[in-house]
Design brief:
three-stranded antiparallel beta sheet, alpha+beta, Cytochrome p450, 16 helices
């Protein structure tokens, strides 16, 4: 029986300031602000972010309807000058026929067949990281996971490690992402494009490094694998190859600039998401001996001492549930915005054209209506016979609908295989105490997550 439609009845939210609206409260702590909208006002709340008239959604049914209709009923909310400069005119920022063309060209690069092709790279990268670790050593977990995530994304995207250039690229991307996050929470979000603040100048310098290297790699690949020693790596077939080989229905390839935009977007969306997710998962596992013991049992039973492969993914049930629960409590991405077009409707109610519609993975994933004891780490929530039924779109770390993340399968397999590979070799005992979060483009630890490495032996 289909679920009964939940009517959309928007109510006014907190009064804002002239011109700024609710920007000060949102900028100070966006997660707390959106949680307040949900708890104190309801499932559909009107508010304002600067000059933007906004509607915040908290009910999974409204969110499912919103995400399903984004392509036709909503336009892009251009959230900042910095974001536009980093992602260019990639599929993430395209609409209409241009979006359909680019999605058709880019999606094959991250389909299951390609995930299978790159799984060995993921596992090998994790094995190399574990080989550097020593019993009793101390590591900054997030830093380690960032290095690992960078290595995986550079090898799968560009085909090799790029040597010293990888470090320069990684540092430049870190600057770009930091400045993008800073802009998202302040008045810089509304400054004209022509204004060059210190933050924007730092971003432009970082992008100059990124663009020069990515265009160099594209040119080298177009001129043949031997042109600069970079072509293809690992026998070819990396994501850059796939982007350069892609053709639309009329036989047209992506231009060099379009390849740059897609490659940089895949890179930006991929490595920090993976590293952040793994950091929070290690933190949660360290605080849950029962979950970690069940993970040990599964790894010993399924893998029997050998490294995991992509064929093990479906058999690593508990590992996948750990990843799913980690993404629920700490979803790396925390908000999805769009702008209503004429004719947009939610829950049977018209949404005025020009309204910025928002939904948040953080607030829905932590809603006690859908997840009892929402902050508790309970991977058993996702057991096949779990008593509590999770509504559709109460869990959506990768978005949903036609514009959902095209790399969802890639990311889920990557996190699970990296976790399984490292957890075979080590327990990470995170220093006791709460780790606060900070909000940028992603939800990341606000302090170093320091762990003691403890070598694990098969039972």
């Amino acid at each position: 029986m289909p679920a009964q439609t939940v009517p959309l009845r928007p109510v006014p939210g907190p009064r804002g300031l002239p011109w700024a609206g609710n920007l000060p409260a949102f900028g100070k702590d966006p997660l707390a602000f959106m949680t307040r909208l949900r708890d104190e006002y309801g499932d559909a709340v009107t508010w304002s972010l600067g000059p933007w008239r906004s509607l915040f959604l908290s009910h999974p049914q409204h969110i499912a309807e919103f995400l399903a209709s984004r392509e036709h009923s909503y336009g892009l909310l251009e959230v900042g000058w910095s974001f536009q400069r980093i992602t260019g005119k990639s599929v993430m920022r395209s609409t209409g026929a241009d979006w359909r063309r680019k999605r058709g060209l880019v999606q094959p690069a991250v389909r299951p067949r390609q995930v299978r092709h790159h799984a060995r790279t993921m596992v090998d990268s994790a094995l190399a990281a574990a080989d550097r670790w020593q019993e009793g050593g101390h590591v900054d977990v997030h830093r380690e996971m960032v290095v690992l995530g960078q290595r995986v994304v550079i090898r799968t995207l560009f085909g090799n490690d790029l040597g010293d250039r990888a470090r320069a690229l990684g540092a430049a991307m870190a600057v770009a992402e930091r400045e993008m996050a800073r802009e998202l929470r302040g008045v810089g979000l509304f400054l004209p494009d022509r204004v060059r603040t210190p933050s924007r100048r730092r971003l432009l310098r970082a992008l100059a490094v990124i663009d020069a290297e990515v265009h160099r790699l594209i040119s080298a690949r177009q001129n043949g694998p031997a042109a600069d020693g970079d072509g293809g790596g690992e026998g070819g077939g990396d994501l850059l190859d796939r982007l350069l080989e892609a053709r639309d229905e009329e036989g047209r390839p992506l231009t060099a600039q379009e390849v740059r935009d897609e490659a940089v977007t895949l890179w930006a969306a991929g490595h920090e998401t993976t590293s952040t997710a793994l950091t929070w998962i290690w933190y949660l596992l360290s605080r849950s001996p029962q979950a970690r013991a069940r993970l040990d049992d599964e790894l010993d039973r399924v893998l029997d001492g050998r490294p995991p492969t992509v064929d093990d993914y479906d058999r690593l049930t508990w590992t996948r549930q750990i990843v799913k629960e980690g993404l629920r409590i700490y979803p790396p991405s925390w908000v999805i915005p769009a702008v209503a077009r004429e004719g947009a409707v939610l829950g049977g109610t018209a949404v005025p054209a020009g309204t910025a519609v928002w939904c948040s993975q953080w607030t829905v994933h932590r809603d006690p209506r859908w997840f009892p004891a929402p902050t508790a780490f309970r991977p058993e929530r996702w057991d096949a016979d779990a008593p509590d039924v999770v509504p559709d779109h109460a869990w959506f770390p990768f978005g949903g609908g036609p514009r959902g993340c095209i790399g969802t399968r890639f990311a889920q397999v990557e996190v699970a295989l990296l976790l399984a590979t490292l957890a075979q070799r080590f327990h990470l005992d995170v220093t006791p105490g709460e780790v606060p979060h900070r909000v940028g483009i992603l939800i990341q630890p606000a302090v170093p997550v320091i762990a003691t490495l403890r070598a694990r032996r098969r039972r």
